[in-house]
Specification:
Length: 109
């Protein structure tokens, strides 16, 4: 399974590299996907340590899906707004983090 995962990531990375315009745009995309998928769970875990794991997973999924959909469409702004995609996806991830999970304990059930 690990070997197939490595092969998949390598193939996906190669595809992204060939689709990129230049090194700067690839670097920008790498930082942006990290922001939209990991910033909210990190800050949420620091400030709200009692939140369940599903809050972080919902935030990661929401930010990643919104960002990927806009990136695939070539949109620079969140649909219907003047907000840049990275900031909008991060804000929506924060909303998902706040709405999912209530105030239960994190970890095992």
């Amino acid at each position: 399974l690990y070997r197939w995962s490595v092969a998949f990531v390598a193939a996906a990375s190669l595809g992204v590299a060939y689709l990129g315009e230049d090194a700067w745009s690839l670097l920008e995309s790498a930082y942006e996907i990290t922001m939209v998928s990991l910033l909210v769970p990190l800050l949420g875990g620091l400030w709200w340590p009692g939140r369940p794991e599903r809050s972080a997973l919902a935030a990661m999924a929401t930010g990643s899906v919104v960002w990927a959909a806009h990136a695939a469409a070539g949109a620079e702004n969140l649909v219907g707004t003047p907000v840049p995609v990275g900031l909008g996806a991060t804000a929506l991830a924060a909303v998902a983090f706040a709405l999912v999970g209530g105030t239960g304990r994190s970890g095992a059930a």
